[in-house]
């Protein structure tokens, strides 16, 4: 099994009409290929994980439970940047199966969590995976909702969100200025944004990455440059834009986990992310900002 779907071949057929707001490759990976079922993304999450808070000695064998914990902890890291008001509204942009939304509701206690995703299959999976919580929360104070829509065209009114977060989705966004504009629009004045994913460190790195990592070459990911992402948020009117590199808690332990799993250790190109990090091409980041 591979950690991620194989790079697109030249004759890859389309699988029906793509969701209007997604490029074909992105639509395919979150449609019929269903990336969350690939073994390296355990537990229904789809992110590289943040591995610094795992219990036990740092050099022990990593387990599937650790992998799930790492993915949850990436959400905890992002949500921990907020002082989420009781009764407030939080929005997860690129929510995937919505498990991070459920975690936000369970552990951080906002009034409403809205999971937004541009792929209708992901929204259907999120509703199925969280069916019990959705039913239980329909009229309760802690409410969960899933909404089909794109980061660059968020189907919500102005100023209705207290905290907007996004976990490992922005590497797919073609229209980052559109996302930044929409984030600034839906956040209430004083609302907070936290965005985490991997970005290129420099323009030269962005040019080099497609030769090393097929997702950049086949149209799944865009090698956005981290300082330009920060500049895009500021240009949309967001304030106090801060960038924190967290790669030391992501790439080495992720690669060690891959190396320790017999079915994953021979995944040749996914293991090149560590090379890309160690050679200074990319890193994993948390960007935070305030609205208004
Ligand atoms: C790598 S997955 C991450 C899912 C989830 N945040 C997690 O960590 O488990 C990226 C998600 O972003 C969604 N996505 C990609 N482009 C998007 C866009 N322009 N607007 C909204 N969602 C998008 C995909 O459909 C996919 O579900």
From TrEMBL:
Pfam families xrefs: Methyltransf_11
Could you mention a single GO BP entry for this protein?
methylation
Q: Which domain of life is it from?
A: Bacteria
* Gene3D superfamilies recorded: Vaccinia Virus protein VP39
Record keyword Protein biosynthesis present: no
Which regions are flagged for Pro residues bias?
1-21
- Region annotation (Disordered) maps to 1-23
Residue ranges annotated for the Methyltransferase type domain, each copy included: 91-194
- What SUPFAM superfamilies would the database entry show? S-adenosyl-L-methionine-dependent methyltransferases
Keywords, A to Z, come to:
Methyltransferase, Transferase
Name by which UniProt lists this protein: Class I SAM-dependent methyltransferase
What high-level taxonomic lineage is stated for the organism?
Bacteria, Bacillati, Actinomycetota, Actinomycetes, Kitasatosporales
């Amino acid at each position: 099994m591979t950690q991620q779907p194989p790079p697109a071949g030249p004759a890859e057929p389309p699988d029906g009409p793509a969701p209007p707001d997604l490029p074909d490759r992105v639509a395919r990976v979150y449609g019929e290929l269903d990336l969350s079922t690939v073994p390296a993304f355990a537990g229904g999450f789809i992110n590289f994980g943040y591995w610094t808070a795992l219990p036990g000695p740092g050099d022990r064998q990593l387990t599937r439970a650790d992998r799930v914990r790492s993915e949850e902890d990436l959400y905890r890291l992002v949500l921990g940047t907020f002082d989420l008001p009781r009764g407030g509204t939080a929005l997860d942009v690129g929510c995937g199966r919505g498990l991070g939304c459920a975690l936000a509701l369970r552990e951080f206690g906002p009034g409403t969590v809205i999971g937004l995703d541009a792929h209708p299959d992901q929204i259907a999976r999120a509703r199925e995976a969280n069916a019990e919580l959705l039913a239980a929360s329909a009229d309760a104070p802690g409410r969960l909702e899933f909404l089909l829509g794109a980061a660059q065209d968020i189907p919500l009114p102005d100023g209705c969100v207290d905290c907007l977060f996004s976990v490992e989705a922005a590497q797919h966004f073609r229209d980052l200025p559109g996302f930044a504009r929409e984030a600034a629009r839906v956040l209430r004045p004083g609302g907070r944004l936290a965005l985490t994913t991997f970005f290129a460190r420099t323009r030269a790195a962005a040019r080099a990455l497609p030769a090393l990592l097929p997702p950049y070459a086949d149209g799944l990911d865009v090698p956005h440059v981290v300082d330009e992402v920060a500049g895009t948020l500021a240009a949309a009117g967001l304030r106090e834009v801060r960038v924190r590199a967290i790669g030391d808690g992501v790439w080495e332990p992720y690669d060690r986990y891959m190396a320790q799993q017999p079915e994953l250790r021979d995944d040749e190109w996914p293991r090149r992310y560590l090379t890309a990090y160690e050679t200074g091409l990319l890193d994993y980041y948390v960007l935070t900002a305030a609205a208004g």
